Amino acid sequence: MDELFKDGPFKDGPFKIGDLARQSGLTQRMLRHYEDLGILRPGRSEGGTRRYSDDDLRIARLTLLMRDLEIPLDTIAAIARERRGHATGDRSAAAVAGLLGHLSDRLAAQAEKARALRDEVLRAASVIARCKGCTRPPSRQGCPQCPVNAESARNDVAALIWQGD
């Protein structure tokens, strides 16, 4: 997982909640919520203070990334808790594998949508680049032969750019 977070070194744990919040990019409130959901399981000092580990930091950052990808918290929490709900490794492995399979399918679908959108963006950018140096007004009336005008009929990003005329 370290390869997901190449944003520089972090202080080694154990961390207090404020330290973890600063290093993870999450609020203290969110960290407590993740603990309530079973995503994070910090240790405690003799006085009861939460003591987060380096693994907790990695899990907090992973959770933030997963949320950025619109993976629901209940899905993340289910993955975090599932192993503990089984008496044998075999049952645990089967259950966790099922959850990870669903997550993988969801991410693959999101990746496909992102690739398709990126292709549209790149095609629109390529057409827009042909307008560089054009002295005509950037509108259907001002430049009826504009390549963006033609592209907007088949490219939603170009239509977004060209709308309103």
Provide the domain count: 1
Largest sheet: 2 strands, antiparallel
> Gap between N and C termini, in Å?
48 Å
Ranges with pLDDT <50 over ≥5 residues? none
Helix share of residues? 55-70%
**What percentage of the residues does DSSP assign to strands (E)?**
under 5%
Walk me through this protein's architecture.
With 165 residues, this protein is mainly α. The protein has a single domain (2-133), classed as Multidrug-efflux Transporter Regulator, Chain: A, Domain 2. It contains 7 helices and 2 strands, in the order ααββααααα. The protein has a two-stranded antiparallel ribbon. Helix 4 packs antiparallel against helix 5 (89-129).
Question: Can I get a quick summary?
Answer:
The chain has seven helices and two strands. The protein is mainly alpha-helical. Helix 4 runs antiparallel to helix 5.
List its traits.
mainly alpha, Multidrug-efflux Transporter Regulator, Chain: A, Domain 2, elongated, two-stranded antiparallel ribbon, 165 residues
List the helices and strands and how they pair.
Blueprint (H helix, E strand, L loop, with lengths): L16 H8 L3 H10 L5 E2 L5 E2 L2 H15 L4 H10 L6 H41 L17 H5 L4 H7 L3
Antiparallel strand pairs: 1-2
